[in-house]
Amino acid sequence: MKTALITGITGQDGSYLAELLLEKGYKVYGLRRRTSEPIMTNIQHIANDIELVYGDLLDLGSLIEVVRKVQPDEVYNLAAQSFVATSWEQPVLTGQITAIGVTNMLEAVRLVKSDARFYQASSSEMFGKVVETPQRETTPFYPRSPYGVAKVYGHWITVNYRESYDMYACSGILFNHESPRRGLEFVTRKVTNAVARIKLGLQNELRMGNLDAKRDWGFAGDYVQAMWLMLQQEQPDDYVISTGETHAVRELLEVAFGYVGLNYEDYVVVDPKFVRPAEVDLLLGDCSKAKEKLGWELKVSFEQLIQMMVEEDLKRIRQEVATMQLS
Ligand code: NDP
Ligand code: GDR
C-alpha cells in the first residue's frame, strides 16, 4: 500500500484527489491547519477513510514532524492562499504561504524523506499577460497578481529542488478547474450559486467584475487524475493541464442563467469593487504534452461542468430552505 500526504486537503482539489487515491488503495494523510472554523465540508464524507495531521505551510518544524510521522511515498502540495483577488489585499501572507510555503514543504521532504515524489500545484496565473496563445510549458511567465508572482516562485523552486537534489519533483501548470466544491468566492461558483438563489426567489441581483476576461475552465475531478499521473512516470517533469477551450465570463453567465431559463442581463450589475487592479485577459492552454506523455484525458465539457454546478447548488439550497422551514 502506498502512502500519500496531501496539503490543502480541505480545499476543492484536495478532496477530489483524496477520493482518487483512496480508490487506488492508498493510505491518505491530509495536512490540516488549526483554524477557528473546523467544518471541512469537502471531506466530511471521507473523514473516516483519511487521517488528518496538524501542520501549517508557514511552520517548517510542523512539516518536518508530519513527514517524519507519515513517511509518504508521494506528497501533493496543494495548499495555498489561492484566491487571486485576496492576494492584493494580503500580498505578504500570500507570498509567505504560496511561495515560501513551497520551500518549507520541499525542505521537509528533502530532510526527512528525499525519495518521496513531490507534486507542486502550479497555475496558469503564472502566464498572466498574454505573451503567446495557446499557453504551453515553454511559454514565458508574466504574472499579473501577487498570487501569480508567488506561484512563479513555487514553480521554480520545485524545478530547482529537482535539479539540485535529484528529487522526483513535478509541477503541474493547471488552468482553472471548477466543481460543486469550488469556494463561493471564485467566479464559476459565485455565478452558479447566485443562479440557483435567483431561480428559487432568494436573490434578485448579482454584482460582478470584469465580464470580458477569458478562462480555460475544466472539471476538478478530471484534473486530479493528471496530478496522480505526473507522479507515476519514470522521470519527473512539468505539464500544462487544460481543456484547450476558452470562454469569457459573459459566456459563463449566459450558460448558467440560460440553464434555468433566465437571461443574465436582467440580473447582473457590474460593480467596480470586483474589478482587479491588473487582469489576466486570456487563458487558453495547450495540453498536448500531457495527453501524449501521460495519456491524460478530459471527460467533462464546459457546458456539462456549469450544468453540474447549477444543479448541485439548486439541490443544496432547496434542502437548506426545507430544513429552515421545518425548524
Ligand atoms: P482551495 O482554495 O480550495 O484550497 C486551498 C487549501 O490550502 C485549503 O485546504 C486550505 O486550508 C489550505 N491552506 C491555505 N493556507 C495554508 C497554510 N498556511 N498551511 C496549510 N494549508 C493551507 O484551492 P484549490 O483546491 O482550488 O486549489 C489547490 C491548489 O491548486 C492551490 O495551490 C491553488 O493555488 C492551485 N491551483 C488551483 C487551480 C484551480 O483552478 N482550482 C488552478 C491552478 C492552481 P484551510 O481549510 O485550513 O483554509
Ligand atoms: P482566477 O479565478 O482569478 O482565474 O484564479 P476567479 O474565478 O476568481 O476569476 C476568474 C475571472 O473572472 C473574473 N471575474 C470575477 N471573479 C470573481 N472571483 N468574482 C467576480 O465577481 C468576478 N467578475 C469577473 C476575474 O476578474 C477573473 O478574470 C483561479 C484560482 O483558482 C487560482 O488559485 C488558480 O491558480 C487560477 O484559477 C488558475
TrEMBL record:
For this chain, one GO molecular function annotation is:
GDP-mannose 4,6-dehydratase activity
Q: Say which species the protein is native to.
A: Fodinisporobacter ferrooxydans
Indicate the family of this protein: Belongs to the NAD(P)-dependent epimerase/dehydratase family. GDP-mannose 4,6-dehydratase subfamily.
Protein name, per record: GDP-mannose 4,6-dehydratase
Q: Name one Pfam family in it.
A: GDP_Man_Dehyd
Q: Where does the record place the NAD(P)-binding domain?
A: 5-309
Query: Function of this protein?
Result: Catalyzes the conversion of GDP-D-mannose to GDP-4-dehydro-6-deoxy-D-mannose.
The record, for NCBIfam families, names: gmd
| Cofactor(s) for this UniProt protein | NADP(+)
Q: What is its EC number?
A: 4.2.1.47
Q: Which InterPro entries does this chain map to? A: GDP_Man_deHydtase (IPR006368), NAD(P)-bd_dom (IPR016040), NAD(P)-bd_dom_sf (IPR036291)
